[in-house]
Amino acid sequence: MKIIILIATILLFIGCSGGVIGSEQYETINDVEWTLNGYTFSNTTLTATGMITNTGDTTIIATWGVEAEFYSDSTFTLILGGEQQFFNVNLGSGVSKQWTLNYSNPDIVESNYPSFAINNFRAFIRKN
């Protein structure tokens, strides 16, 4: 029963960030390259930063976003939740943009996860 409550809580929290990771209301942008620059943490926030580069032949038109799932560590066996960041700039072919994803949950102490990791990156655009 505790597992069911934990899963429901995680799903509800992910939904509060503006969209569920992998949500069908967004269309995945495929021709991108991800670079992970690093992780930092505090008592209240887990932060991941990196770069995304448009490797396709066409411009990614604003508004678009990036998302990823936050895990307790690099074994990717305990998911903490997910986060998104939106951009109001076009991203031309060969152009890069820095991204920052901040995860915070009032039900956990983020500093308990100094070895957290992110996975399941996705660039997306809202479907019309």
Could you describe the 3D structure shown?
By secondary structure, the protein is mostly beta strands. The chain has a single domain, classed as Immunoglobulin-like. Helices cover 12% and strands 45% of the residues. The chain has 1 helix and 7 strands, in the order αβββββββ. The protein has one helix spanning 2-16, and strands at residues 26-29, 32-41, 46-54, 64-71, 79-87, 96-103, 117-126. The strands form 2 sheets. The protein has a 4-stranded antiparallel beta sheet with strand order 1-7-4-5. A 3-stranded antiparallel beta sheet has the order 2-3-6, with no helix packed on it. It is elongated and about 40 Å long. The relative contact order is 0.28.
For this entry, give a set of tags.
Immunoglobulin-like, mainly beta, 7 strands, three-stranded antiparallel beta sheet, 128 residues, disordered N terminus, single chain, four-stranded antiparallel beta sheet
Widest sheet: strand order? 1-7-4-5
Query: Biggest sheet, open or closed, and with what strands and sense?
Result: 4 strands, antiparallel
First-to-last CA distance: 39 Å
Total E-strand runs: 7
Q: Which structural class matches the secondary elements?
A: mainly beta
Q: Please, how many helices?
A: 1
Strand content: over 45%
Give the ordered list of helices and strands: HEEEEEEE
Mass-distribution shape = elongated
Please give a quick description of this structure.
This protein is mostly beta strands. 12% of the residues lie in helices and 45% in strands. The strands form 2 sheets. Strands 1-7-4-5 form a 4-stranded antiparallel beta sheet. The protein has a 3-stranded antiparallel beta sheet with strand order 2-3-6, with no helix packed on it.
